[in-house]
Design a protein that fits this description.
By secondary structure, this protein is mainly alpha-helical. The protein is about 85% helix and about 0% strand. The chain contains two helices and no strands. The termini are far apart.
Length: about 70
C-alpha cells in the first residue's frame, strides 16, 4: 500500500469484508437461542393474558346486556 487515499480505502474495505466473513462463519452463540426461547415464553404468557382479558370482557358485556 503506497498511502494514496484510494489504496487506503480499498484496504480498509477488504479488511472489513474479512471481518464480516469471519463473523458470518462463526456458529451462533447459545445466548441467541436462549434469547429466542425467552421471547417465545414471553409471547405465550402475553397471549394467555390477552385471551383471559378478552374472555372477562365478553362476560362483562354479556352481563350488561342481560
Amino acid at each position: 500500500m503506497n498511502g494514496d487515499p484510494s489504496s487506503t480505502a480499498i484496504a480498509r474495505i477488504e479488511a472489513a469484508l474479512t471481518r464480516i466473513e469471519a463473523a458470518a462463519a462463526r456458529p451462533r452463540s447459545a445466548s441467541g437461542a436462549d434469547d429466542l426461547t425467552n421471547l417465545q415464553s414471553k409471547h405465550d404468557r402475553l397471549r394467555t393474558a390477552v385471551q383471559d382479558s378478552l374472555e372477562q370482557l365478553d362476560q362483562l358485556i354479556e352481563g350488561a346486556q342481560g
